[in-house]
Amino acid sequence: MIFVSNKTSFTMKRVFNFLLAIILMGNFALHAQDKKKTDNKLNHQKMKATKILFVLTSHDQLGNTGEKTGFWIEEFATPYYFFTDKGIEVTIASPKGGQPPIDPKSNLPDYSTLATKRFYADKAAQEKLSKTLTLSKVNQKDYDAIFYPGGHGPMWDLAEDKKSVELIESFYNNSKPVAFVCHGPAALKNVKDKTGAPLVKGKKVTAFTNTEEEAVKLTKVVPFSLEDMLKNNGANYVKGNDWSSFAVADGLLITGQNPTSSELVAEKLIAVLSEHVSN
Asked: What would the pLDDT profile of 209-226 be if each residue is shown by its tens digit?
């Protein structure tokens, strides 16, 4: 007969309990990992079903300068591929429909990016851009978010466009994110919240700065200052260094400062959409 001391028995129990705890923890970790994979897969599938509406300007005259303007190609191409590469469907609209004007300066070599080069090699994307929907024919119910690339064009048409104002208010009031980059926030000029106050009032926003506008020598050409307009509407206007990537999200409202901020705005929009999907 083998006798086991109380001390030995106590040690064996501790070892047994320790091993049991490791097994249980391992099973729990595996279960949690499987659940995370399942949740991620479901969220990915939901994100692939996401639809984003891009709104581009139809205005091509740079004030009374005799020069052309329009939308800035980088601010379109970078977010466009950021979204479509994730399987997200992008629809493009503009006030007049058809081919929206591309600011010719945005095609200069100094402003060329991987995304713009990809766009000009992408015949399908070019064809899609040439056939934008007329803004009056789109409905908030068909999309999950709205995105406004910039360029100086929006300062003239989207800032005053009643259908654009109606769309932004409809998206926001239906808990859908609204995003703008560079001069895109011009479209917020006349947008109101449910109380009739400016939508940007009390919210943290950014846009092309006064000093950036001065640097491109268009302060006296544009119909108004973006920075001043947002401040006058009660926004908590914030900015980064000129020409640096800078964007902020205040709930459903996402804004970026300049062309280099377009991808950051897209990232923040995806984060807001993902949060809604997971909920």
From this structure: 999 999 999 999 999 999
